[in-house]
Amino acid sequence: MTYAAALTDDPRAAGFVYGVGRISARFPSQGAEKEYAQLVGADADAIVRSADLKDTLSKQENRYLARQMCWVFSGPGGDAFAVVARDADDLSELLDGLSHDDSTLHVVVGSPASATAGSAACIPPGLPPVSADQMLVFTRDEFLAALPQPDEKELKGKDLEAWNRTAAGLFDHLIQRAENRGMSDEHRGMNYLALRYPQIYHLAFDQQAVGAALIGVDARPAHNTGRREVSVRFVFRDTRTHVVQGYLCRVDVTDVFPFLTTPLTLTFD
Asked: Are strands 129-139 and 78-83 parallel, antiparallel or unpaired?
């Protein structure tokens, strides 16, 4: 059994998500699409831009149509789940997050949702319905710029461009795996670390400075006293000596909001 299978087959997993990808608004029917075209006076067959959709549906008089829209979260591997708005605040947050910029990322930390009569038509077959307990919207560049930067001692004579390349490479490595839907314990733990634990970026930069390259990141269940945790290991190989060493940290993924339980520690297993 693979690590991923061992994690996702756990019946206690409860369907929580911690996904990094994009949310798109989709028309539930041809009738809704025609209604939108009438509202904006556009050709019904024209491509709908996210910015125009946002401007139109955000108007109070058009909220009746906004409530009909389907909200689908897509990760690197395709559609992952449907986001169900619980109330007007959720709907406003979804509308605010619409962007025509392909570099925009959405982070959804959520819980299983029940499909209502109104939302059932908006849930594509095979996609679980999720309520967003937290939703973040930013670009990759904005995220990287917000990371705590290394000080002069850590830079070791390198410039900040080297730091930015290392941080960007690790960020992409963690969140752009084709299988990362943000739904397994494994991927929830990795996505949490990618967004909330800057130390992993400083570790990768420090290792690169001494001639070691990241060769893999893996996760597995951690045995403890009854809570669900994953151990995430970052493995580096010295490019000159080929010596391999790993650094391990643990993330508790029992509840909707993961949290760090053990910081990065050198490991030899």
From this structure: parallel
Run of H or E including 35? helix 30-40
Stretch among 28-42, 113-127, 187-201 having the lowest mean pLDDT? 113-127
Q: Residue 11: pLDDT above 50?
A: no
Q: List, for residues 158-180, the tens digit of each pLDDT value.
A: 788 899 999 999 999 999 888 89
Is residue 106 classed exposed, middle or buried when 0-12, 13-18 and 19+ CB atoms within 10 A define those classes? buried
Query: Could you tell me if 4 and 217 are in contact, meaning their C-beta atoms sit under 8 angstroms apart?
Result: no
Amino acid at 228: R
This prediction's pTM: 0.87
As given in the structure block, the two tokens for residue 252 are 């508790």
Q: How does DSSP assign 149-209, residue by residue?
A: PP-HHHHTT--HHHHHHHHHHHHHHHH--TT--S-SHHHHHHHHHHHH-THHHHHHHHHHH
Tell me the two tokens of residue 42.
């556009």
pLDDT of residue 5: 33
